[in-house]
Amino acid sequence: MNAAASPPRPLALTCGEPAGIGAEIALKAWAEREAGGPPFLLLDQPARLARIAESLGLAVPIAAIAAPAEADAALFAEALPVLPLAAPIDGRPGQIAEGDAAAIIEAITRAVRLTQAGETAAVVTNPIRKQSLKTMGLAHPGHTEFLAELAGADARSVMLLASPRLRVVPVTVHVALAAVPRLLTAAEIVTVTLATARALRLDFGIAAPRLAVLGLNPHAGESGLLGREEIEIIAPAIERLKAAGLDVFGPVPPDAAFHAAARSRYDAAICMYHDQALLPLKTLDFDEGVNVTLNLPFVRTSPDHGTAIDIAGTGKANPQSLIAALRLAATMAETRRRTAAS
Ligand SMILES: NC(=O)C1=CN([C@@H]2O[C@H](COP(=O)(O)OP(=O)(O)OC[C@H]3O[C@@H](n4cnc5c(N)ncnc54)[C@H](O)[C@@H]3O)[C@@H](O)[C@H]2O)C=CC1
Ligand SMILES: NCC(=O)COP(=O)(O)O
């Protein structure tokens, strides 16, 4: 059977923080599955999921599987396929158990290995507390950085958030605001922007991406009166990107970068720090935002929100961002397969 005729491989969805809403939104995403939609398997504990489904009144049959190949369209139509984790899970929605860090990391690691082996199509992660990585002795502040190590990627991973109305990429990611000016370099801006342009072509199918690079300071520095990063770092990076043939402009004053007319001028906005990027996206499209990691040898997406421990176990969790993450992962994996083959 050639690749084009192969049945779709399932997506590998991780458990995330067991005290959070990951299980609930995964159960709800399965309940809202569409005919022909991407099948997914969940790396978790089947008995725990059955308990949570019952407590929330969700009619979701759980099918424990031994290998991803079992999670085909026929099984997925009838039950949520769950690949059991070796590590135990003690936490319950709303109640953190620090010992669950081992299961959280096992799920991420196995999802990556299965995808690298071609058994699953892409990695989709449920949200974690960054403390879990620390508990396991890992220095990475989030999935974005941890996945680069797991992938053995040469290049640094890049965070992109995508929603129906906006795509944003923070150059600095999980760092204190006070550290941003020190960490911002022309080389970093060039690396991140080139990675974004490449991903927009290969994974999103945008042949000639248009990129806006934002300033750091109010009014993009106002000719140096309100800060010099635009003159010394950001504008030189833009010149290098133009010289490399990119359709790029800026530094754009950040406060004027996200209104509708401004958004129509670019395919992605390169932002200087985490909240400059995520704040407009979550304000516009919180329920449909997807977090994507670029520069990896496999596709990884995640909902845009966090663990939401404050509402875990109450039945209030909205699965739409996870559903968008599952759909985008399947589309990106297929687009990447087609562009790589052409
Ligand atoms: N990909 C990941 O692993 C991510 C992890 N986080 C982590 O999550 C933890 C909590 O972060 P917060 O800043 O509090 O953000 P959060 O997104 O968990 O919660 C913010 C507010 O939005 C609500 N909310 C979030 N998702 C929702 C959903 N699907 N349906 C209904 N309401 C929802 C929560 O109840 C809360 O009131 C932190 O430890 C953070 O590091 C945050 C973002 C992404
Ligand atoms: N705010 C985004 C976030 O914290 C998610 O980070 P990551 O775990 O996807 O690296």
User: pLDDT under 50 segments (min length 5)?
Assistant: 1-5
Strand content: 15-25%
Give the full name of the CATH homologous superfamily of the largest domain.
Isopropylmalate Dehydrogenase
> Which class of the largest domain in CATH terms?
Alpha Beta
Look up the CATH topology of the largest domain: Isopropylmalate Dehydrogenase
Q: Characterize the quaternary organization of these chains.
A: single chain
- CATH hierarchy: architecture of the largest domain: 3-Layer(aba) Sandwich
Largest sheet: 12 strands, mixed
Going by helix content, strand content and strand pairing, the class is alpha/beta
**Ions, cofactors and other bound molecules:** 1,4-dihydronicotinamide adenine dinucleotide, the ligand NCC(=O)COP(=O)(O)O
Total number of domains:
2
Across the major sheet, the strand order is 3-4-2-1-5-12-11-6-7-10-8-9
Looking at the structure, what is the overall shape? globular
Number of strands: 12
Mean pLDDT: 94
| Number of helical segments with 4 or more residues | 12
Distance between the termini: 19 Å
Spatial extent as radius of gyration: 20 Å
The run of helices and strands is: EHEHEHEHEHHEEHHEHEHEHEEH
Subunit structure: Homodimer.
Pfam family, one: PdxA
Subcellular location: Cytoplasm
Binding site for a divalent metal cation: 174, 219, 274
